[in-house]
Amino acid sequence: MAASPAGALAGEDRRPGQHSWMHTIVRWLFIATSLAFLAAVLLAPLATVFVMAFAKGVDAYLHSFADPDTAAAIRLTLLTAAVVVPVNTVFGLAAAWAIAKFEFRGKSVLITLIDLPLAISPVISGMVFVLLFGLHGWFGVWLQEHDLSIVFALPGIMLATMFVTFPYVARELIPLMQQLGNDEEEAAITLGAGGWMTFFRVTLPKVRWGLVYGMVLCNARAMGEFGAVSVVSGHIRGLTNTMPLHIEILYNEYNFVGAFAVASLLTLLAALTLIVKTLVERTGYRRR
Amino acid sequence: MSITLDQVTKHYGGVPVVNDVSLDIGDGEFFVLLGPSGSGKSTLLRAIAGLSGVDHGRIALHGRDVTHVAARKRGVGLVFQNYALFRHMTVAENIEFALRVRHMRGKVRRARRKELLRLVALEGMDERLPAQLSGGQQQRVAVARALAHKPEVLLLDEPFGALDAKIREELRRTIRQVQRELGISTVLVTHDQEEAFAMADRIGIMNLGRLLEVGAPHELYTAPATRFVATFLGAANLFLARRTPDGIQVGASVVAAAGAAAGGRGEHEVVAVVRPEEVEVAPARDDLASGFLARGVVEEVMFTGALERLRVRLEDGAATPLLSFVDGDSTTALQVTRTQHEQRGFAVHPGQSLAIGVRRVHVLPTPLSSFTACATSAALAEALVRQPLLAALVARMKTRVAVRVEPRLGVPDAPCESAADFVGTTVLASQTDCAYRAEWLLRRGAQDLLVLPQQAAAPQRVLIHWMGEAVRGATLAVSASVLRHLSAEAVYVGIVPDDGAGGHGMRELLDARSEAKAAHGLEIRTELRYGDVSQELARRLGAAPGQMLIVGVADLARFAERFRAVLDSGQWPVLIVHRAAP
User: Fold this and answer.
1) Are A224 and A30 in contact (CB under 8 A)?
2) Residue A103 sits at the chain B interface (C-beta within 8 Å)
3) N or C: which end of chain B has fewer CB within 10 A?
4) What would the CATH number be for the domain defined by A57-285?
5) Do B97 and A194 touch (CB under 8 A)?
């Protein structure tokens, strides 16, 4: 009985004929490879962001947020996410519900269409809106006559962000709903519950983790979207620059501390989203 | 009556999954719907619960027509096979769900919950989540939840399917106890006949969407009316036997049949059921306490605890037409079960030759026993045997097809080549002149004649008509028997000749429906037409694809001329029931 301490710790059974030292080496090899890869691809760039942000001290770091344009970019990004995420959540729920619970003509077409934004380049996603609502676009003249601006303004940014991020909630929910089936809903109906009650008391709690996860992904992408927003925003400082666009401008102006300060904030926001998700999950398993 | 179903029908893609089911379930009754998977029993249960609609027919609960009432307003409790508990709610919240929906006060809810948990023996489990319970406990919670709002009817959809044997038995007892205590009318759906026997006040057996038979468990077991019920409820040996004035002749021996006296039309072929435990084996014929059947050789001996199972091959297999098809195995092996007591009296080992006796024979009331494919040459007859609809009927009826060659089939005034009587249903290929051939066979003694086009598949609708009151009973009996083996709907077509008086046709229609229901348990639709009989039948058959005709004929005068349009076209299967008027 020459089980290695590590093997015993994991409580695993040794298969006959298996070399314990070989087993240990292979295991450490795999762990080391993954860690090295993570360090090179993920940790090093992340560290660089913070190192560069604090290169000239905390004062310079904080000072870069005093810039009104930077503050405007942060506000715009948060506002966009605050509008886009709820809208896409409602849409994703409706689409997933329709696909998972009903059989209808054109269902496969709908599924394909939901995937479309993931497949096409973000630049094209932005371009579409310019072609539709831009001055030379289909609705351009009509919009100008009525003094409405969509492209190079807030509505355009929100539309483009919505377009790029709408698959995330639906994509998370469709397989989950299909897998969980209809039985609980049917049970609720036979117990006397109506449609809304069944939805809010049974369906929604049932899929809540998938929903939260989809919203987190949607939010992360909405805050970080660059390509599509870059095309429709027009890069007007203090007005239509979101955080990713603003970072690029600052960087191009050799304002490294400013650029990396905003980048660090964006990174923190992403981390915050993940922390929120973890917290929600953890408290969710505990009972009231 | 707490549940009344009247001609409930449900189609999926044109195929009836629930076919004209009518049923009354009494107050406080425990009713079990038993059938193989795909027989439509779960669909029927969902229709009662209101989770799926019906295409035709009515459903009433306690006298209230609920056919178009939403599921949530029907006041039924439904228990699913996979429990369907709300996984994010505690046991208490699950059980109180129906009460919360009804805005009951917390105090009332708690009291009711405690009562229900006591009922299903789960006291103190209130705060557990479903995932923390075992399968049996989860199903108990599901039962308690379904009973919370005091439903008038409890529906159980294969509730023990996912549980192991021991827990299943325990839960069965609990549910039966709860049901008795509350006196609630209950319908349980299952494919397990042991479960049905253990729990039911009455059992209804479904196959191919049709409710075949309804009755107390012991009635259905000892005196089934159909071969499906005979073979589905327990094991059964089916024999082709002859009813004679002395009794039932199985092979060379005549055995007295249990409770089957009325024969009707003299000596004819019948299907006899012998349960494995009604077979006796002994070293020699003289040692048998019961009627001798044949000698046999033991093929297999299997010990299964309380009982011993034997498979015995009959030595004169040809003389004793045994129809048992065990798992598609068509060898003529007889199934026998023996108790420990019998084993001690006479030990048996494989290869041993012994005498077989039969203690009790039950004769099925079905008029369809076996088929005989009739053609002018052996090759044509063999081709007819392979016809898809015939092959399907033979397989479903667990019977056999014999071959009869009549080289001069259809030649006027020529006698039969074969000296044998016409036995069972004679089958004829549909082709030109087949109306004359049909008449030829009917005039020479064929009683039930099935005319089959080469390509005909199983029909979706069977039209029924008879010419003359003398054949009404026989036509209905044959129709009922055929329809049990087809998932088709039955329509009686009443035809009033143009010159005939009015009112008469409608009464005939109503009589037909009530007789079909009362005497054969067959639900049929009815329709009334005016005009020439054969023309109207041909027109009605041509109106939709996938139809079949069953027609009763008393008088053969001008038969071929009248039925040429229907028979010679080679489009529709036609079953002719011929009984000469007395």
Assistant:
1) no
2) no
3) C
4) 1.10.3720.10
5) no
